[in-house]
Amino acid sequence: MTSNSQTPSLTWGVKQSFCNYVQSAGGMVETLGGTERAEDGAFIFTMAPDSDLSLDADGKLQGQAKFLGQVHFTAHGGMLNVYLSDPILDISGTSARITVDDHKTKPRRIEIAKLDLATITTDETGALVIPTALSLEGIQFLGDHYPLRAALDPVRLRLATA
User: Residue 66, CB half-sphere, CA atoms under 13 Å: how many?
Assistant: First the structure.
């Protein structure tokens, strides 16, 4: 990663087995719009300036975080064609989800994952680590290969420091 590790960001590998499958099938995983790859293969999206995600007085996440960048997965001569753009974390009370635009030319925002706010931890860099699970729309997004609530890679969320 070439950007500052203290920059507000979302680091998410989506689902490592999916990424591995695309690459083992001779496909490509392409990052666009400023998205970078971490050493572990996860995708790093920079937080958009109009995000309002913060920790409340009780230390709980609240608000919405918008991120910039795209990841494009292709394989099998284009038969597998998954486009993930500009993720948003929506957190309201105990409900939390990740939505993305799913098409490069005709974007449509879909929910691909739910976040488990009850099991947030912090990693060695200070980022919040939040487990994720596949949502109903996420099943179709990843090609109907994974069941509802299948574990996805956890997100690592870095908020702005005061």
Answer: 9
Contact between 89 and 54 (Cβ < 8 Å): no
Distance CA 159, CA 138 (A): 25
Q: Strand, helix or coil at 116?
A: coil
pLDDT tens per residue, range 21-78? 999 999 999 999 999 999 999 999 999 999 999 888 888 899 999 999 999 999 999 8
Q: And the tokens for 66? A: 């918008």
Q: pTM for this one?
A: 0.90
Give 74-131 as a DSSP string: EEGGGTEEEEEEEEEEEEETTEEEEEEE--SSS--EEEEEEE-GGG-EE-TTS-EEEE
Q: Which two tokens stand for residue 145?
A: 């290969």
CB atoms within 10 A of CB 55: 12
